[in-house]
Amino acid sequence: MPRWRLVVCVLLPFAAAYYVSYVFWLISPLISGTLARELSLSSSDLGLLSSSYFVALMAAQLPVGALIDRHGPRQVQGFCLMVAAAGAVVFARGDTLAVLILGRIMIGLGVATILIAGLKSIAIWFPQSHVATANGLLLSLGALGAITATEPAGPLIDVFGWRLVYLGLAAAAAIYAVVIFAIVPEPGRKPLRRESSVTLHVIYADRRFWKLAPLSAACVGTAWAMQGLWAAPWLSEVEAFDRQTVIRHLFVMAVALGVGATLFGFLSDRLRRFGVAAESLFGCIALISITSELSIVLRWPIPSYLCWAVVALMGASGVLSHTIVASYFPKEVSGRANTALHFLHLGAAFVVQWATGAIVDLWQVRNAVHPALAYQAVFAVNVALQVAAMIWFVWPETERLSVQFPPAPTPALLWQAFSPQSPISPYYDARREWILQLAAARAHRANWRLAALGSSSLLVVLMSLVVHGY
């Protein structure tokens, strides 16, 4: 298939649908204040309402991967977008928390397939050398919805109201469903295998998967939860910014999210040519994001636009972790592999988003504002969990020694081994090889510990210089 047709018929339809899903997700901070006033919702209620979106996404992820692998992304995605459109109508007409949650869940179920269906279509139709770049473009074009859900959406909500805006989103979701049904090709010449030995059980039992998954889930899930809801309360209640400044911060985060998706996919493809693994790039990005979140918690004198933009960049790094996980398994099960990881991303986002509101409500509200310590405490716990996941990610694994030893030596065998008149015995050779492998493994672990200690010390020194204004 020509490259222009790949872009027009495969990439752009799913990117447009992903665009709508981003608007559904990130419009919540703009209407949270209005919902709280109209329906008398608390912070925990808002956290539950916003996180119900992730609950629906989580519930749909595991079956969605199998359905996409079996029936193809076009049919599954087109049907689910119609469900999202119906959910947007329910949300727009909701007058109680229960009805709003129902609409939010329907929207989540409807958009649960978008990312995985797009990644699956790219894996089927695009050449392997361009998969990471195409994945990045998918996330980047979709992230334009994050930009739309900030400054452009603010005036629309002020003029037309959030209910009419949601009805417009319902119409857009229905239109994109029709487009996907109409122009996205089915992989008839590249038939999907209906059965594979690589099941979800095999994916979740893979050692490589669990080396990456905790860090990816902790960092990406936290970034999504912050950008999707809790960045706005922090900026307004802790930093005391006005509404326009808060919206401007969200706009910068949305731009960073879109730029990061394309940038990370491009860097991954280019650095691979120089022998740099995508795992190394992902680890570096995660370390920078953790440092940025720590600076937010401790309120270091760093521009808030920069810190929150880095957090948004971490949310875009999922393009790397999805590419990494997909490379571990056969292409015909890439949908299941990606949903296995995406399920953990969404689970982490749900827990962080809901638990943040529940914990913040433990502090007493003063003048309709929560104290800064409430947000700092919750954010600090998230940072600690990400640090633990980073340690697990970089901690080296000692390979099992494969030396096979003969039976225990007898006195005669020992005499033969060490006698000057006899050649070295197999027992002696095996023991010497075992000692060499053990020494190499211990040296490898010591080098990693030394490198981790050195980089951590350097990070502390640099941040201390920043704090003291040097």
Tally of DSSP β-strands: 0
- What does the main sheet amount to? none
Q: How far apart lie the N and C ends?
A: 56 Å
Helicity level: over 70%
Helix and strand sequence: HHHHHHHHHHHHHHHHHHHH
Which blocks of ≥5 consecutive residues have pLDDT under 50? 189-195, 400-406, 446-470
Tell me what portion of residues adopts beta-strand conformation: under 5%
Radius of gyration, taken over Cα atoms and rounded to an integer in Å:
26 Å
Overall 3D geometry?
globular
Instruction: Report the average pLDDT across residues.
Output: 79
Secondary structure category: mainly alpha
Question: Helical region count?
Answer: 20
What does this structure look like?
This protein is mostly helical and 470 residues long. Helices cover 79% and strands 0% of the residues. It contains 20 helices and no strands. Helix 7 packs antiparallel against helix 13. The longest helix has 42 residues. The radius of gyration is 26 Å and the shape is globular. The protein starts with a helix and ends with a helix. 45% of the residues are buried. The C terminus is likely disordered.
